[in-house]
From TrEMBL, chains A, B:
<dbReference type="InterPro" id="IPR046945">
    <property type="entry name" value="RHMD-like"/>
</dbReference>
<keyword id="KW-0460">Magnesium</keyword>
<dbReference type="InterPro" id="IPR036849">
    <property type="entry name" value="Enolase-like_C_sf"/>
</dbReference>
<dbReference type="InterPro" id="IPR029017">
    <property type="entry name" value="Enolase-like_N"/>
</dbReference>
<keyword id="KW-0479">Metal-binding</keyword>
<dbReference type="InterPro" id="IPR029065">
    <property type="entry name" value="Enolase_C-like"/>
</dbReference>
<dbReference type="InterPro" id="IPR013341">
    <property type="entry name" value="Mandelate_racemase_N_dom"/>
</dbReference>
<feature type="domain" description="Mandelate racemase/muconate lactonizing enzyme C-terminal">
    <location>
        <begin position="201"/>
        <end position="297"/>
    </location>
</feature>
<dbReference type="Pfam" id="PF13378">
    <property type="entry name" value="MR_MLE_C"/>
</dbReference>
<dbReference type="InterPro" id="IPR013342">
    <property type="entry name" value="Mandelate_racemase_C"/>
</dbReference>
<dbReference type="GO" id="GO:0050023">
    <property type="term" value="F:L-fuconate dehydratase activity"/>
</dbReference>
<comment type="similarity">
    <text>Belongs to the mandelate racemase/muconate lactonizing enzyme family. ENOSF1 subfamily.</text>
</comment>
<keyword id="KW-0456">Lyase</keyword>
<dbReference type="Pfam" id="PF02746">
    <property type="entry name" value="MR_MLE_N"/>
</dbReference>
<dbReference type="GO" id="GO:0000287">
    <property type="term" value="F:magnesium ion binding"/>
</dbReference>
<dbReference type="InterPro" id="IPR018110">
    <property type="entry name" value="Mandel_Rmase/mucon_lact_enz_CS"/>
</dbReference>
<dbReference type="InterPro" id="IPR034610">
    <property type="entry name" value="L-fuconate_dehydratase"/>
</dbReference>
Amino acid sequence: MARGRISRLSVRDIRFPTSLGGHGSDAMHTDPDYSAAYVILETDAEDGLKGYGITFTLGRGTEVVVCAVNALAHHVLNRDLGDIVGDFRGFYRQLTSDGQLRWIGPEKGVVHLATAAVLNAVWDLWAKQEGKPLWKLLVDMDPRRLLSCIDFRYITDVLTEEEAHEILQRGQVGKREREEQMLTEGYPAYTTSCAWLGYPDATLQQLCSEALKDGWTRFKVKVGADLQDDIRRCQLIRNMIGPEKTLMMDANQRWDVPEAVEWMARLAEFRPLWIEEPTSPDDILGHAAISKAGKPLLPGWWPYILQALAPLGIGVATGEQCHNRVIFKQLLQAKALQFLQIDSCRLGSVNENLAVLLMAKKFDVPVCPHAGGVGLCELVQHLIIFDFISVSASLKDRMCEYVDHLHEHFKYPVRIKKASYMPPKDAGYSTEMKEESVKKHQYPDGEVWKKLLAAPGD
Amino acid sequence: MARGRISRLSVRDIRFPTSLGGHGSDAMHTDPDYSAAYVILETDAEDGLKGYGITFTLGRGTEVVVCAVNALAHHVLNRDLGDIVGDFRGFYRQLTSDGQLRWIGPEKGVVHLATAAVLNAVWDLWAKQEGKPLWKLLVDMDPRRLLSCIDFRYITDVLTEEEAHEILQRGQVGKREREEQMLTEGYPAYTTSCAWLGYPDATLQQLCSEALKDGWTRFKVKVGADLQDDIRRCQLIRNMIGPEKTLMMDANQRWDVPEAVEWMARLAEFRPLWIEEPTSPDDILGHAAISKAGKPLLPGWWPYILQALAPLGIGVATGEQCHNRVIFKQLLQAKALQFLQIDSCRLGSVNENLAVLLMAKKFDVPVCPHAGGVGLCELVQHLIIFDFISVSASLKDRMCEYVDHLHEHFKYPVRIKKASYMPPKDAGYSTEMKEESVKKHQYPDGEVWKKLLAAPGD
């Protein structure tokens, strides 16, 4: 049973100067400093447990998310944790439908990132009180209870609560075996660590060769800034990994719709499994146009149909910047993606991700989560392990992104074995950072930033 | 010629306690305090002119937008105004594509509202330096120059710069006559002031009767919270205005897709011209399903098709919370709306609104701007008057929202004559507020708020 009244909510601006090494760089985000708005919830319960929640950011702007968390705080403070999780749908809606705050969203951008940070902390606290890792809390939860955490508003035209219940009921079959399978083999991963856009070829080669030695078989390369560069880099990586291993490409929204089709036609020879974020994350019909062959959905699309990507065997993947379940609903309705990439901090925490996992199951589209950044691997592994055990029951065409950065700052870092995520065993959502790391990287007054900001040229 | 270097950017949190009177209340925003993040730009030019920009908010959360404006300030400060407007597309993209800040958008929610406030101030300053009201600055601007303000990224699949140029070229024909027409007759408006959801029937009746006396012929009523209430209120207002005058309904996103169709079938007898925001502003395919009769666009929609709204003669309108040009592009592609409602502060200022006006023209969908709030009427009149003179060249099915609140706080308030917006004659974008009003309503330390916050019960 959840216990205690939320007696304190604090939030910190934590930044890692990753831009100095080109880590995380892509066609649209050339100088990211991986960062987080980091929420800590305390209760008046005697157990002394705290809930930690993060949302991922890229440096500048973290202070804006911090400000939004503070704007949400009055919905959280003095609330009983039992009441919150007892009507989690109501609480979710309270945060996302505040009559004044929803104007600056709704359910998107800064306020939704802030909502994610707060709710991630609530889930961490709840799981800790239950003494279970989050994935296990979800796996063990009664389906009706699980569904009571989801706000079905705006998605009932494709998924009603009853349909969702049927999906979860079917997911009960073979659940124990799948849990066992996860505990012994883990969830398959792919790596993005080798081929950031800012890395010189030599770095790319070295990291790729190390990754091969470590048993990685699936690789993602960043593309989209310069076609000739892309061809050279893709050639290089395909040569290194050989014809059998899997290669994915990621354009990080660099292209317009016609450009995406043309550009990918040029990169098709390197046989990518998918092209990720070919265009604006808001462009559902654009993704549909890019991904489809056959007859156009809407008039006026014929120029792209002849060259669209399906005949090339390239799928479309997107999701890390899709801002809520309504966008995912439409991407599924329009058959605009072949791989759905949830994000543990962009969507409204576990609650909204559950809705998306269930819709993906209904449409039979594999979920391949976005990870990396700061803590995204730590968090999203819980969701995808739950998905396998209780929802999708399949590993076909499925894998979870992995990036080898910044795990050392977490108290319960991910464990990768044979290129797979091993299920966390510690209670909670793996969101807690080491106090030492938090202190040093607090912006702008942590030790790391004090030094950097004092350095000449800054 | 634009002149001066931006030497100062300041931003204030201005709130009006409108929730106390139920003004502005609707099915989703029950207690709005109409507010604004208010940006002031100063230059080192000798003219002493300042640029004022606002974005509209609903109270709580204004401080988050203020924080986001400050996060954008480094892109603005010390820039030459001539350089900014000389490459306005580049400047727009710099604000919206900051490699770190775009993660917490991109081009949506808080950061985009902040972008709008900053750019609105730039346009105000530019127009003041040119000695023209903004609409006239736009009308007189060379089409190529006008297009150089627009970021065509993500919309070239429906509108290329060349197509946009052809539209503007065609708009040159008869321009002088239309300008004359505007100056004498003004732009037709409709009123939303009579029927906020929070008003008792007696207030509604009184306001409606006054509006009729003042010559209003088009009325909007808020619906969506309770069907029986809606029937009673719609009956009341239709009886008062008679069968010939125009009635619109606004649900402010209250419904899911099937619910919207069912609910409106019940209200059809009151013959609304449109239903506004029937569901989530993100739900392009949902709006398409609601608005369409005939064959379904996508499989699985058949349950709604039989009852969809087109056979009832009810159009779908949306836009005030559509967060960028990519959403509008798709709403047009999917024929999801029959009336397009731009907003002067939700989109990225004049720059992005120009893109939307041009797309709407291409798809031959009438633009009926959203207004009301604080300053929205003042700003958007410039855009729609420009639209008539230089783009649409038509008043068919077109009108601009008007709400009779808070104009007294503006230095250059709107002038309504015979239920029409009369073109502003003062130089600028009509964004400047009275210093006295700003001082009094600053949150939380202005006189008005000091009193309210000290009152018992707060």
